[in-house]
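Q: What would this complex look like in 3D?
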Amino acid sequence: MSLKHGLLGLLAYSPMTGYELDKVIKESLSFFWNAQTSQVYRELDTLKKKEWVSSVEVEQIGKPNKNVMSITTIGENELRVWLDMHTAEDMMKFRDGMTMRVFFGSTGDKEFLLKELIDYKRYNEQFIERLTAVKSILSQRAQAINKPTEKKYWLMAISRGHKLAIANIEWVDECLTVLKEDEDLK
Amino acid sequence: MSLKHGLLGLLAYSPMTGYELDKVIKESLSFFWNAQTSQVYRELDTLKKKEWVSSVEVEQIGKPNKNVMSITTIGENELRVWLDMHTAEDMMKFRDGMTMRVFFGSTGDKEFLLKELIDYKRYNEQFIERLTAVKSILSQRAQAINKPTEKKYWLMAISRGHKLAIANIEWVDECLTVLKEDEDLK
DNA sequence: TTAATCATGTAACACGTTACATGATTGC
DNA sequence: GCAATCATGTAACGTGTTACATGATTAA
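A: Here is my prediction, written as structure tokens for the whole assembly.
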């Protein structure tokens, strides 16, 4: 499970350059996946070698040439297989640094932990704001590429981000209460 | 942010062998982090090279010899630095395969998606059950290694898992409603 | 007698991060 | 004149996965 299928998914909507893919990821996908620009180009290279995508060099006036990538039939099949065959079980194998941080929290400085929790809450609040922005970007895109069906799926994805952020914020509040409790006992 | 600091965290409680660390991870840490056995041994090797841990070979009767790993002073410092210095911002850079799956959902087979969502809900319900088991294991461990202070942090970590699982379940229910809606429109 | 537990790893590959590199055009 | 945008990458490193390998003891 990786960036490869994210790229295929985006190219299934319409052909794009690496540069555009990178921007779309940072603009619209980063609420559930992020990637370095260098990684995008490298993965595109791999996809080309696997013949999951093909590229055409397009000359431009007053701008550098660009390589427009398109998904191939093989790529479309691969995407469909990935979507249909990878299991919910895989999705349970996540890694959660924030939980690790708190699990081993007694070893570190409590003031730092409090600060970090409060920061984390703030980031989650900002995340929710960002989701609102992503929502409108995606609505526009759904119109632009004339794929109204996608929008329903995109909204489900956003809703997940929203629910998880809310859960994070509630959790921080709970932690702060617990941590302040024994402050009072001193 | 990685397994290295998880291993250091565990060794800060008490010296252990690679084998024991692997078991503890799978038993008690896997609700937020998982690792292959081979990875545990490899990382221990790296930690030894960095002198964050030291090992002593212990002979056993009727069992293979074992290498008992202990955290060093350098390792303790490293753990503290990691705990205090890594930021909440880093924690926002997660990767969420389930969201990707749904985001690009329109390309795949809808029956598969429905099945996967229902599976995912079931896994989250099982996850909550597992958390209950982990809770009692950790309570015992807190007594066994005589570190009652840790328990509070462990419970906070578990609470996070719980809240996220609840959010996941609610999200699946919402998705199922949305997906069935247009089933009715047919 | 067969599965589980104890105990250790190696090798190859896949995926992600960080730092670095280049160079033109457009808008303030 | 300077920052941002357009457009492409390479190299080295760090982290995670998969497959394979070995061999003894203990409990059902």
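A: To summarize the key features: Chain B touches chain A through 71 residues (CB under 8 Å). The mean pLDDT of chain B is 92.
Q: Very helpful, thank you.
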